[in-house]
Amino acid sequence: MSLDPLTAAVLTLKEIREMTTEMLEELRTRLPQFEGKSIKPTPTTSIPPDCQPVDVPLDPALAIGKRLGALIEQKTDEMPVEMVS
After folding, report:
1. Three-state SS across 28-83?
2. What is the distance between the alpha carbons of residues 33 and 39, in angstroms, rounded to a whole number?
3. Three-state SS for 12?
4. How many structural domains comprise the chain?
5. pTM of the entire structure?
6. What does the alpha-carbon distance between residue 1 and residue 24 come to, in Å, rounded to a whole number?
7. Cα 1 to Cα 13: distance, rounded to the nearest angstrom
8. Which tens digits make up the pLDDT trace of 50-62?
9. What range defines the domain where residue 17 resides?
């Protein structure tokens, strides 16, 4: 469930785990293969309030897109001879 892009876009990991547990409990009678099983409780990961962001390298695909966008916007007075046909 947590790898589903839509679910992960709107819920935290803790909310996804809670939702999945609720769904499993609600559907337990229809899912006999899960008899006696439960979702393993895991600690919630939290970010300390004093945590500072750091610069990270730009994704190569984003860097290429940024560079192409800059080239498109770049004004030139003359076209190079090899590009004139």
Report:
1. HHHCHHHCCCCCCCCCCCCCCCCCCCCCCCCCHHHHHHHHHHHHHHCCCCCCCHHH
2. 14
3. coil
4. 1
5. 0.48
6. 12
7. 9
8. 988 887 777 888 8
9. 1-42
